[in-house]
Structures are given as structure tokens and as C-alpha cells.
Amino acid sequence: MTDYTDSINLICKYSGFNEKAYPDPFTGGEPYTIGYGTQFYPDGSPVKRGQLCSKEKALEYLFHEVDVIDTQLTKLNIVLTHSVRQALISFIHSIGWESFFYSSIVDNLETDDLPAITAEMSRWVFDVDHNVIGNLLDRRREEIGLLLQDSGELMPPSSEILLTAFRIYAGAPYEIQAIKNLEERINPYVLSRFANEFKVADNRWEKYQFEEYPENDFNTVFDK
Asked: Do 76 and 166 belong to one domain?
């Protein structure tokens, strides 16, 4: 099998290892999951309640699943870079092949529309009650970063891109346009949550004059 270390590391990191099969959190029963997110064994039989496995077996199952997903992607006859393929393997392992196949991602892969692909991937972070799952938010962020790795649009290594942007913001036309472009692409739920947490509607710069805002508070926020 081709080296899919990045895919496997992402899956293991976010799925975690479970020695004992556990039920679906929404059905309370099937499908059962074991190991690193395995729901079907290599012979096609489903995981059943109470079954156990070792880490070695769990990795064996995972390698098989990655190989199957890789084969399915190849059958799409779409040219994919190695990083894109690895990102998609982790993503598909998370949401399932059927959900992936009937999403808009396949069509966007054919046209190499990276903004549309990443926008669609970022939407798969909600539970059945439309609440954001933090674990999935982090996973999608890493998958998207891997997908963009060979595109020339790789994010800077800093994890404080927005804080840095706020600090150096000068109101230049290109900065305003970049912010508008970002806002159009951000998931509406995530954007509204940010607005509430940032207290955008509170007019806090009118409430707190700069001389009343302790300088050490700014240093704490923007300190590297």
C-alpha cells in the first residue's frame, strides 16, 4: 500500500482507539464501532456489540479501510495530488463513502475548485442537533490544511493568523477585501458564534476608551 502516514495519523488522532465495540451515539445500537473507527471487518461482516480487538488488529483493520478508500478514489478517474488524496482518505473515513460521493466535493474535484471543496468539507462538523462538534472542527481544519499542502495556498505555520491580522489591520482596501472574502466563505454558524463571543454588537470601543483599557491587557492578547 502507498504511504498514507498522514491519513492514518489523522484518523488515529481523532477517532482514538477503542478496545471494545461501542454503539452509535444516536441510535444506541448499530452501527457498532471498534478500534480506530472500524464498523466493518475486512471480510465485510459488521462489528457487533461486545466484540474486542487489540491495537495491532485495529491498525490492521484501519490499513484495510484506507486501502479500500484509496481504490474507490482511484476509480473516480480524477487526478489527485498525494496530499489531496491523503486528506480525502481521512475525511471519507470520517463521514463515509456514500456521503462523500453524493456531496458536491466530487464535482469540485473535477474542476479543481479548492475554495468550494474546503467550504464543503468545513460544513461536516455538526451533530444531528446542528451543534458543532469541537473534535470534528479540529479534524476538518487539519484535513483542509493537508489538502492545501501542494496547492500553493498553504496556511502560514502560525496558529494565530487572525490575531496577527487584527493587530496589524490598517483599513487598507486589500485588507478590507480580504476580510469580506473570508466572511463570505466562513460557515454562518461559526461566524455568528464568533460575533457573539467577540461581542461585535456591543460597540465596546465606544464603551472603553483606549486610555481606560490597561496596556498589559493588549500585551497579553498579542504577546507571542
From this structure: no
